[in-house]
Fold:
Amino acid sequence: MSAVTAENDGHHDHKPAKGFMRWIVTTNHKDIGTMYLVFALAMFFVGGVMALIIRSELFEPGMQFVEPQFFNSMTTMHALVMIFGAVMPAFVGFANWQIPMMIGAPDMALPRMNNMSFWMLVAGILLLFSTLFVEGGAPAAGWTMYPPLVLQTGNALPFAIFSIHLLGISSIMGAINIIATIFNMRAPAMSLMKMPLFVWTWIITAFLLIAIMPVFAGAVTMLLTDRFFDTSFFDAAGGGDPVLYQHLFWFFGHPEVYVLILPTFGIASTIIPVFARKPLFGYASMVYATAAIAFLSFIVWAHHMFLVGMPLVGELYFMYATMIIAVPTAVKVFNWTATMWKGAMTFETPMLFSVAFVILFTIGGFTGLMMSLAPVDFQYHDTYFIVAHFHYVLVPAAIFMIMAGCYFWLPKWTGNMYDERLGRLHFWLSVISVNVLFFPQHFLGLAGMPRRIPDYAVQFADWNMISSIGAFVYGFSQLLFVYIVYKTIRGIDCEKATDEVWEGASEHGLEWRLPSPAPYHTFETPPDEVPTEHF
Ligand code: CU1
Structure:
């Protein structure tokens, strides 16, 4: 057997590709993880520019910069780019980097499919962008693409739908890979209940993805045939029902929002114990809470549809089922807090983001609980209150923890320590501006400002202006993050990372459960044949 080196992962004997080609053909989990993360960061800025176009138009009442149709395209594209282009790929990037190392595997189980997942993601997003240049403009009916409105989309609709198919295939392949890796390639002593929480949250997320993506693909394909092949799935005139689309969409859409938050929980459960210098409080309850949230996410979808005229029992069922999700979620928040309780805490950048996450995610969770009440939703449906709610869950929760994960793992990935002073500056700019950006949107929603509208009545002017100022400060602050990451990767003016990275943290084996590089263990090599130098 040939030796395992950095260039040769032990599976293949051919010479590795060099230069640019290396990135095209790579099957190495670290390379692919890096590509996912860099791609996610680029899309974060593209989606961010779209958000700033929206916030510019809403800076003051009246129409200033864009046509209403283009404004609606921006709200649609901003959501699709951030969800499918930024947040999900960032999580897959973390999964690629961390899962093999955390479970003691030499790589992902299906390395070539791993490469294909990434490049299909790129193809899907490029196809989505192509709709901006198609006659009639990009889809403008919201990311939910409800018929009949979405069927008014010009020539872009089939491109958008095919893009969703590609993104779905990419996600499903990624999920299969993660499941195959975790179930088959754990180090011999690592039972499921010894896996790091990040691995647990990802395997549950992977099952969610496999369950929901085909439903979404089916729903948009039915849109396609309604528009081009004379079917009437969603057309009442032909015996169909537009509400059917909403059921299908939200059967996908609700678990999808947990796809965007469960790996976030895993990153928080990794970082908080390290900086509290205590083991994670309630490991088993964290696992069961994650599984409970995932299960419940499949049976609450119609809380997005309280206004479609469901029977009263339906309203009540979806209301109570949704409220129950607050229980396992509260278990998690309790456990993070209990982990910090009486810990020897320090507040380096990853921990600052994590503490902010616990607090601000709780705000987003509570507004979610408010809206789970059907009579409350009757008032706030389609208002800025909804926008404020899910942005609290997605930005100061999901995006903050993605950034926390980058700060936390960059020293391990690059061997260089990031600039702690700049990291803290990035945190404080972000945490202040993100609240200036999104907190006023609660007030706008409570006062009745509708979402997805390019203009508004004058009484909403003040809070919109404040929100837009927050948006620009938040957006430009993120350039600092790019600078810090670049500086760390290139090793410009920064210290070498120590093996321990954060003082006192690895004393209890908290930082890494396994030595790095990981122990050698594959099915191709039975354990007694593994050369001893790998141990
Ligand atoms: Cu939902």
User: Anything to note?
Assistant: The chain has a mean pLDDT of 90.
